[in-house]
Amino acid sequence: MADLDELYRQNAKIVYHFLYKSCHDKQLAQDLTQETFVQAYEAIERFDGSCKVSVWLCQIAKHLLYRHWEKHKREAPLELELESGSTQGLQAGSQPEDPAWHHAATHIELFDVLKDMQKLSPAIREVMYLRITGALSFKEIGEILGRSENWARVNFYRGKEALLKGRMRHE
Fold it and tell me: Do residues 3 and 12 touch, judged by C-beta distance below 8 A?
């Protein structure tokens, strides 16, 4: 049990920070951090050492967060955008004060981007998800994925370019 306590002491802040940066809700981040370690303790024998323990734990945390959002029918990027009052991408003549229109337009655009992201390589897609939905720095993404900050930056740029090329072909 001492090893499990040490695992918690060494990684709890990393997992909490990852979750908080993703959901911007202290209580949810705390709850999911605890649940992450409960699940990790139950599955510790399946950890194969192919990545850092902190990466494995953040993957568990990410899946718990996505499950939470799905269960509560929440879309984090959309909610964060609506809460911040962002009106980027409004068409000429649209009503920025109409929340229903803004919600629908944002949802359609988000859906299209997420659908296009599925065509990216797994590594690039993961960097894109962490950067966009987690609002993590490239340094943090590199640490989570066991790579360098520069690797994360390059892969995000490649993903962004691929998405832009795909969008231009559709217009």
Answer: no
